[in-house]
Design goal:
The structure is a homodimer.
Chain A (H helix, E strand, L loop, with lengths): L26 H10 L10 H9 L17 H11 L12 H4 L46 H10 L8 H9 L2 H10 L9 H13 L7 H6 L8 H13 L15 E3 L19 H4 L7 E3 L21 H13 L5 H11 L36
Antiparallel strand pairs in A: 1-2
Chain lengths: ~375, ~375
């Protein structure tokens, strides 16, 4: 279900403070004053803040609505259980959370994920955090939304290595899941389906958003939320044109762009065998085209790029400069941009670890075997 | 008792009954009454209850004290982070929770655990729940306590495949861990050590206890907490002599016993190559001797025995009858004992999933490689 997400939230109505950027300590009082004067909007923002307010948007405190998949508390709770449910994998070892670890910025900190049989997947695991705001899912956008995405790893032979039949058989064999699905999808004759599994996971994942980042607080008028270097980094980020691919609410995830539009990165960083979105569209213009990743929480989600070959955020910034902008960024510029990117780390989701219901004699047992054709990593 | 999951629902304000399924309102009132009358014990217990009160003990609501390792909130919180910390493994994929999943009764539901390189470990993963009450840790008791135990899997080549140096280097490279260790172990010149890592994990694990089981409520005088069949199962459990190995607070974990003292189980269930405690003591009398496992939450922790070859609790009960007691239990006896064992499922730990601190450039990177000598499962 695609997000019904309107980019035109009237931010000025949310209470922007109007003190100029670059002011110091004594501003906290005037911040407060500014906040109480929201309606009046007496003072103008700095040009940079005005620019930023036009380019970006804070992560809201509550998740967006999903088309055709209403987010209800019971569905979110079920989705959380399924997100942490290793019995959805053939081995009973791998859950969504294995590669999208909610304690680790929603990723696995691997170059490419390790899955069933210790096989390595082809691409770096994107973060689940704020992924509901992306225009599509996967690096190549081949899933329209999180519901469609959730079905992929369950079936991928190098990930969870299960299939829809096994997954549904598993869920139907566990009476408590039957009760949960019935509550989450009321009125359905057979609520325990592969589609509803994915819908529940989508509903939970939609709640995995990270409001409250220093940048978002700054954007809302709190000048003390960013340091001078971070503000300088933002200015550089904007003036260099990084926002062509990384803007909006999610600082990315809003479109498809060639990786190496000016200068091809090294083969290690951009492996010649992975043509990106070309595999989805079969259009020559889509060679090495990828969805721009969100930069929110980027300091938590190394290693970087679809290949996962760059561990340092500074290096990733430098690569972007040369590959996308044809610019050799100075160490100061790289440092400032990196410092700015660190302001995009928001409040991480608070999640109570779910207690999963017991299986029964009807539940398909775990199978850790790997087809002989598949070579372990 | 599988109703705990339903009890989460009222939080969600969806109008589910506030009493667990299967109980009526008046029963929960009598629960409360029974709890308030516990001290007085006004009415005389039945002979079976008196016997049970002599043999067993309820799981307390609060964890026990640890020798030389005071349990403090900050240490428990640190221990929780470390328990879920995959960067303590060489691959960054495996944490304590991988094989001792707190959503799955503290186990991994595998015959034997899968670890680094998809290698299979030699024995079934025992539950972490209530493990603080065992006289020692591991199936063969080779670790005196949870602190000593915690150091094992981190280093085992088929589990987390790391080593103390790498683990300490990892923890010291992450500034936030330095702060946590300093708070958890105040006054120490270098608090970030492998020993303190294990102490923090032990402190957290000590909190993973499961009070409130139907049996414990029955033991406290609430006759409604067990069904007639379950009480019959308890009677059979006691009269057949199961309590020789499974008694006390933890229904096991209190001593070492030969597996197959009357009749050797099949080679599949008791593999000839695993001599149990003999490997620890080198004493012939310890061949096939194992620590008796706790039976608390046993319905959640299939498959059974150190080999993990038995998936059905009924079959496990039958095997115990023949192997340990030389008795062929009738289907009714097996059914009643199994029904009784299901009353040992207590309230599962409520754990907020920890947000783990970011690594730095000094952190040793993940290494998923497997020595060529090691064969994947």
């Amino acid at each position: 279900m695609r997000t019904r997400y309107l980019a035109i939230i009237p931010m000025l109505a949310l209470g922007w403070a109007c003190t100029p950027a670059g002011e110091t300590a004594s501003e906290s009082e005037s911040d407060e004053a500014a906040q109480t004067e929201t309606v009046a909007q007496a003072e103008p923002s700095s040009p940079l803040m005005q620019r930023a307010q036009a380019l970006f948007e804070a992560v809201p405190d509550t998740p967006p609505e999903l088309e055709d998949n209403p987010i209800t508390p019971v569905k979110v709770e079920l989705g959380k259980m399924l997100y942490f449910e290793p019995r959805l994998s053939q081995s009973w070892l791998i859950s969504c959370n294995t590669c999208h670890n909610l304690g680790l910025g929603g990723v696995d900190l691997m170059d490419t994920s390790i899955g069933h049989g210790w096989q390595a997947g082809p691409r770096n695991a994107p973060t689940v955090l704020n992924s509901v705001y992306n225009l599509a899912q996967f690096w190549d956008g081949r899933a329209a939304d999180l519901e469609e995405q959730a079905k992929g790893p369950v079936q991928a032979s190098v990930e969870m290595a299960s299939d829809p039949e096994r997954a549904v058989q598993t869920l139907r064999s566990i009476p408590e899941y039957g009760e949960w699905f019935a509550k989450a999808f009321p009125g359905e004759a057979e609520p325990v389906t592969f589609d509803n599994m994915a819908r529940a996971i989508e509903a939970f994942e939609a709640t995995l958003i990270t409001p409250g980042s220093p940048f978002d607080r700054w954007l809302a008028g709190d000048n003390s939320a960013m340091t001078a270097v971070q503000v300088e980094g933002l200015e550089t980020f904007v003036s260099k044109g990084c926002t062509a691919c990384h803007a909006g609410l999610n600082f990315g995830g809003q479109g498809y762009f060639a990786f190496g539009v000016v200068q091809a990165p090294s083969d290690e960083i951009r492996p010649p065998g992975d043509l990106g979105r070309f595999a989805v569209t079969s259009t020559a213009a889509d060679e090495y085209v990828f969805k721009s990743p969100s930069l929110r929480n980027i300091e938590l989600t190394a290693p970087y790029f679809h290949s996962g070959k760059v561990w340092s955020l500074e290096e990733a910034v430098a690569v972007m400069g040369s590959a996308q902008l044809g610019a050799v960024l100075t160490p100061d510029e790289i440092g400032a941009i990196t410092a700015f990117l660190e302001t995009l780390t928001g409040n991480q989701p608070e999640v109570e670890y779910p207690i999963l219901p017991p299986h029964t004699a009807d539940t398909p047992l775990p199978d850790v075997s790997v087809p002989t054709a598949a070579a372990p990593h």
